[in-house]
Amino acid sequence: MRQRLHDESGEVTEVVLVTPALLFLVMLVLQFGLWYHAAHVAQAAAQEGVRTARLDGGTAEDGRQRAEQLLERAGPTIVGDPVVDASRDVDTAVVEVQGRSVAVIPGMRLPIRARAQSPVEHLSKPVAP
């Protein structure tokens, strides 16, 4: 009975099998966290770009440049391979940001897509009483 309590023959095998699975789960959580952060940075860039594009006298190009500036300031490695598209017509301004998240797990670069849309400002002259 005493010898049976001190038998550790299966413990090494358990550690060898469980450790890689736990490390993979930790890396998966980190990967998701980085993707989530990158998605929020892309959304912030799209919103900032649309705020600029929707101004009276603003252009789609102004919005695109503003979104790219925010992506560069937030860190060029957070959103990988960013592509910013902007459009503006008489009523609506739209900015879209696409890219990929940083890969913690090799080969797992999750796609990111953010879109912001807003009505264009139209300033009118005040009506005289």
How is the topology of this model organized?
Elements: H1 2-5, H2 11-53, H3 60-74, E1 79-88, E2 92-101, E3 111-119
Antiparallel strand pairs: 1-2, 2-3
Helix pairs in contact: 2-3
Quick summary:
The chain is an alpha+beta fold.
Model description:
The protein is an alpha+beta fold. It has three helices and three strands. A hairpin with a 3-residue loop joins β1 and β2. The radius of gyration is 25 Å and the shape is rod-shaped. The model has no long low-confidence stretch (mean pLDDT 88).
Q: State the distance separating the first and last CA atoms.
A: 103 Å
- Stretches where pLDDT is under 50 for at least 5 consecutive residues are none
**CA-atom Rg in angstroms:** 25 Å
Q: How many separate domains make up the residues? A: 1
Shape: rod-shaped
Helix-strand sequence: HHHEEE
Mean pLDDT: 88
Tell me how many strands there are. Answer: 3
What are the defining features of this structure?
single chain, 129 residues, alpha+beta, 3-stranded antiparallel β-sheet, 3 helices, 3 strands, 48% helix, rod-shaped
